[in-house]
Specification:
The protein is an alpha/beta fold and 216 residues long. It has 10 helices and 5 strands, in the order βαβαβαβαβαααααα.
């Protein structure tokens, strides 16, 4: 069986060793190396030691998690980043997701959640808990949309729907807001999901960020 390779980037050696020991117990995964900051990760990758997944701390000296995630996004977009942090602030979560992280895990989580997150990132391409998606949706501003809908073939009503769907309003409240029936909103939702290739409201919001349709 081909194992998924992992790099651990954390300036706290004890945490890095603990994570490494935990991951090594998982049959499907193999830890390639542990490094203490983003610069050291870059050096390893430039030596052709490219992992499948990076467990990435945010607050580190020399090169932090935000800078490292963005570098990976621009230079090795196939490498999947799982952010690890003690920090649950909205701006940190959204910042890491915008810089390419496929998931965000708090260091206080249970070991079983780490395994769940790794499996999800490998199999589905992302891992977002209900808490993280809640923070993400609440951070989206209905007034911050850019004119980048054309290539997706959205009409004006669908654009308006996406704008409100990236707020914390319910679908019924959105229907009332734009003076249409809930059944009509269902039609907009189905059309938008199909054009964006998503299956949920949260995925739609995340995809809108990824495509830079909206700014957060």
């Amino acid at each position: 069986m081909t194992k998924t390779t992992i790099a651990i980037v954390d300036d706290h050696e004890l945490m890095a060793k603990a994570l490494s020991g935990l991951v090594q117990k998982y049959e499907e995964y193999e830890v390639l190396y542990e490094v203490s900051n983003g610069q050291e990760l870059l050096e390893r990758i430039r030596q052709n030691n490219v992992p499948d997944v990076v467990l990435l701390d945010i607050n580190m000296p020399v090169m932090n998690g935000f800078e490292t995630a963005l570098w990976l996004k621009n230079n090795h977009p196939h490498v999947k980043v799982l952010a690890l942090s003690m920090n649950d602030r909205e701006e940190s979560i959204v910042g890491m997701l915008r810089n390419g992280a496929r998931g965000y895990l708090l260091k206080g989580c249970k070991p079983s959640e780490l395994k769940q997150a790794l499996d999800a990132i490998v199999q589905k391409g992302f891992y977002y808990t209900e808490y993280i998606t809640g923070q993400l949706i609440r951070s989206l501003s209905p007034d911050s949309f850019q004119n980048a809908f054309d290539h997706l073939g959205f009409n004006e009503r669908e654009i308006e729907f996406v704008k409100w769907a990236c707020s914390d309003l319910t679908y019924v409240e959105i229907a009332d807001k734009i003076s249409v029936s809930p059944r009509t909103i269902d039609g907009y939702r189905e059309s938008v999901f199909q054009k964006m290739g998503v299956k949920s409201r949260v995925s739609m919001a995340i995809e809108a960020i990824r495509l830079r349709i909206i700014e957060v």
